From TrEMBL:
InterPro entries: Cavin_fam. One of its GO terms (molecular function) is protein kinase C binding. Its main location: cytoplasm. Residues 1-44, 163-190 are annotated as: Disordered. Residues 125-152 form a coiled coil. Residues 23-33, 166-182 have a biased composition (Pro residues). Keywords: Coiled coil, Cytoplasm, Membrane. The lineage of its organism: Eukaryota, Metazoa, Chordata, Craniata, Vertebrata. It is found in: Cytoplasm; Membrane, Caveola. Residues 1-22 have a biased composition (Basic and acidic residues). The keyword Coiled coil applies. The keyword Membrane applies. This is Caveolae associated protein 2a. Belongs to the CAVIN family.
């Protein structure tokens, strides 16, 4: 496009620069040639004037075309700059979205771990509560048994541990009888 604009700025003929230019009319000159009957002696002159008007009109149109091309190129350059800045913005947004998705994934993992831990703690708390309720029931039974034994005035205290087996009581063995005394045996026989 730049080459076209440079060629458009050059005049089409080297001698056209030396010709005096007539001001361009807002509308192009009529395409019909002036009739020779109106001006019998000036046919060549009229054709020359008409050719100059056409050349001026073409130059004016080329100037306008060059200006329009310059405006188009300038607008295109501005659009390219905007496109570059938009691409940079889009890349920044994509990077931010990537970071955000990574943070969201790590946050999701953390929340999942916290939920698992809270479930485990909840299950552990339920187990402890059940154990405490069982122990409470055992304590109440022991208290009621203890109260009954106190009313009867006959009770035994048993101490045991849940984790260790209770030992079975062995009856005490009586001491062996003393060996017979030979003297005492003789006296009884005599």
């Amino acid at each position: 496009m730049g080459e076209d604009a440079a060629h458009a700025e050059k005049p089409p003929h080297p001698g056209s620069e030396l010709r005096p230019e007539k001001p361009a009319s807002p509308s192009p000159a009529p395409s019909s040639t002036p009739s020779p009957s109106l001006h019998p002696g000036s046919t060549d002159e009229a054709l020359r004037d008409h050719a100059q008007v056409n050349a001026v009109t073409v130059l004016t149109l080329l100037d306008k075309l060059v200006k329009m091309m310059d405006v188009v190129q300038e607008n295109q350059h501005k659009m390219e700059q905007r496109q570059i800045s938009l691409e940079g913005s889009v890349k920044g947004i994509q990077n931010d979205l990537t970071k955000l998705s990574k943070y969201q994934a790590s946050t999701g993992n953390t929340v999942s771990k916290l939920l698992d831990k809270s479930r485990k703690v909840s299950a552990h708390t339920r187990a402890v509560r059940e154990r405490l309720e069982r122990q409470c029931a055992q304590v109440k039974r022991l208290e009621s048994n203890h109260a009954q034994l106190l009313r009867r005035n006959h009770f035994k205290v048993l101490i045991f541990q849940v984790s260790a087996p209770t030992p079975t009581p062995h009856p005490p063995t009586p001491p062996p009888p003393p060996p017979p005394n030979p003297r005492s045996c003789r006296r009884s026989h005599s």
